[in-house]
Amino acid sequence: MVRWPEGRAGFRPSSWLIDAWLRWRGEPFRWYATPGALRLALQNQGLRVVEHLEPPFDDVLKSHQQGTIALRGENLVVTELF
């Protein structure tokens, strides 16, 4: 999850309704990481980041054709064991 400049983690666009729904479903945003911190945390677990993508993912996943749209703040991280 991305941490935005005002200090909040989450997707964009967002609203209080989305935040409330996620809390109700038991899925609040509990942590975030900068790309550098995420890379280091994954390395500490024995993983090497092969690719780190941010939206839009259209060229990679064709997400719009599958009926899902990636939001700003979402990340796709591909790793491998090293």
Describe the fold and architecture:
The protein has 82 residues and is of the alpha+beta class. The protein has a domain at 33-81. The chain has helices at residues 16-24, 35-44, 58-61; strands at residues 47-53, 76-81. The longest helix is centred in the middle third of the chain and has 10 residues, at 35-44. The mean pLDDT is 75.
Keywords for this entry:
single chain, 82 residues, alpha+beta, two-stranded antiparallel sheet
Give the arrangement of secondary structure elements.
Blueprint: H1 16-24, H2 35-44, E1 47-53, H3 58-61, E2 76-81
Antiparallel strand pairs: 1-2
Structural class: alpha+beta
**Can you give the helix content as a percent range?**
25-40%
The span between the termini is 24 Å
Strand order, largest beta sheet:
1-2
Shape: elongated
> Average pLDDT, to the nearest integer?
75
Q: Multimeric state of these chains? A: single chain
Biggest β-sheet description: 2 strands, antiparallel
Instruction: Tell me the number of strands.
Output: 2
Number of contiguous helices: 3
- Return Rg in Å: 14 Å
Strand content: 15-25%
Low-pLDDT residue spans: none
Order of helices and strands: HHEHE
In short:
The protein is of the alpha+beta class. The chain has helices spanning 16-24, 35-44, 58-61; strands at 47-53, 76-81.
